[in-house]
Amino acid sequence: MDSDLLQLPLFSDADRAFVRDLDARARAQRWADPDADDALALRSALTTLASWGTLKHTVAQPYSLTVNVLARETLAYHSGMADLAYVMQLLGSLPVQLMGSESTKSVILPKVANGEACMALALSEPEAGSDVAALSTVARHDNGYRITGTKHLITNAGVADYYSVFARTGDGKKGISAFIVDAKAPGLSVEKQTPSAPHPLGIVRFKEVQVPTSARLGSEGEGLKLALMTLERCRATVGAAACGFAKRALDEALAHCKSRKMFGSTLAEQPLAQAKLAEMQARLDASRLLVYRAAWAMDHAKEGRAPREIALAKWQATENAQWIIDQALQFAGGKGVLRGSIFERLYREIRPLRIYEGASEVQQLVVARDMLEE
Ligand SMILES: Cc1cc2nc3c(=O)[nH]c(=O)nc-3n(C[C@H](O)[C@H](O)[C@H](O)COP(=O)(O)OP(=O)(O)OC[C@H]3O[C@@H](n4cnc5c(N)ncnc54)[C@H](O)[C@@H]3O)c2cc1C
Question: Where does ligand 1 bind, in terms of residues with CB under 6 Å?
Fold first, then answer.
């Protein structure tokens, strides 16, 4: 991956060295085929990232959004599954990092960093997606808590060792609490769901799953706040992953345009193709700058918050990446849609990023509300 924008003063020499090293390792790695077995590919990517020491950044204190966006952009360029393995350690463990007791942190976080524990976040439900506060899974007091309910579209379902679970201990927005739940707990079961791009995903059912009081993350009623804090820390990294996919598509498209012969010259010589290439580059640079700004703003914010910058980065980078990848596939012509083509793979991989961790419309609302409050 080139390092043009990384020369900006937003980054330190350590950041640049981190990207150079991760990029070289990820480029040389033979990643397992995710279409053959998504769970196996994820586990294998996790082991690889652990052996490189990369996962320690997902639990580093203080939290650095800059390092996390650089890691995701770099990994997504080479392997969607490596990017997923990385981010789920971050997303699934952030509730523990933010509100776990010292003893919970000391058990879980070292295992996150060395890849021994694979993490998941169980928030969404069939009737509560964008409207997170509508969730209906219940945690009833009984010698600790008993959790009953259904989560769906859960990444790493069936692969994870721990789930950060959000459940009701009372009514309304203040009636949601969070728990860390061992995947082996009796009463927890998983049913696989199969999305268009390889991605371990599933329904997680909780039937009277017993957890001790010490499994609660934060106080009772702090669950919604914790969910939103977690999502806010991860959202810009979704934009970063989108930039990694888009950059790969643009590099592949450029190579294809230069080598594809047509009308006595090459595709790259056609003025319409050049206009498209220029727009792809403009959208990619704009997206990367928005993502880097969000990371800088959050890492330097007094209260550790930058909701407008983060929402703009997630929304624009994912929408632009979808467009860039679509144009890249168009350049490839009919061969672009064949299974096994890099364009086809990226086309499938990018789509969910515009939906999860707050759909584009949700990000638009965050931006507009922030503008109107000013
Ligand atoms: C591949 C994948 C992995 C996922 N992994 C996880 C996971 O690990 N953990 C987890 O908890 N969840 C996960 N999810 C679930 C994801 O977070 C939800 O799909 C997302 O929050 C949207 O919820 P929903 O699907 O219920 O759609 P809905 O909430 O029904 O929204 C449908 C659509 O409505 C539109 N919309 C939403 N709000 C507004 C509004 N205010 N105004 C106008 N339009 C609006 C948007 O276009 C949105 O796409 C994953 C989803 C996918 C696809």
Answer: 121-124, 129-130, 153-155, 195, 199, 201, 352, 355-356, 359, 361-362, 365
